[in-house]
Amino acid sequence: MIEILTPRELNRARETGALVASILQTLKTRSVVGTNLLDIDRWAKALILEAEAQSCYVDYAPSFGRGPFGHYICTAVNDAVLHGLPHDYALADGDLLTLDLAVTKDGMAADSAISFLVGESRPEGSVAMILATELALAAGIAAAQPGARIGDISHAIGSVLSEAGYPINVEFGGHGIGSTMHQDPHVSNTGRPGRGYTLRPGLLLALEPWVMADTDELVTDPDGWTLRSATGARTAHSEHTIAITVDGAEILTLPAAPAGAPR
Predict the structure, then answer these.
(1) What global pTM score does this model have?
(2) Is 52 annotated as a binding residue?
(3) N or C: which end of the chain has fewer CB within 10 A?
């Protein structure tokens, strides 16, 4: 299913996107050395319920997982990259943490992910890898113009990741989003320009470049959910929900500027 949102639905999606961005930034601030992943999940639940929103993850049970997921946020540490199931683990200095959050409010979903380093240590290659996913995401967003095609987005993302030297896995990528979290079209993190679905105003997409430092192969944890790099290498993941408008792509999950910051 591919949804094209009405202006009223898009306004509701903007509100959900702002909520997702706010929760992620709050959780990032709280994620310090010694923080337990189960505490992050508990805080996510409280913030979602306080906003009278619903988690997209608690009852999520796709064919590739051992569902239902049963938690409110994905927490992936170091070599984990996707669908990180929160568990009893205290963050250490230098850990690379990815928080991935999807929420529905007033019938509209939004999905976003951030990767960042915990504490003061900066292990070799980690900052560059996070930056590569952020730059690839920005390139994909820039390519998401009305009349462009899904392949144009995939090509833009893949070009940045390849030029940075990272292998690209095509099993999991971006996706359509709207009244539900996962919809068509699929947005691969590499591809050929000029191919695929034509972008139209009102279309929502969740774009999510992710990489593993030295492999494109994933392995699944015994929990049935957490996906890790097959080599144990570190990973990074950046994601925004965007809306295609007549003027281009609008980022719905962009964090608000801090108070007093220049606009």
Answers:
(1) 0.96
(2) no
(3) C
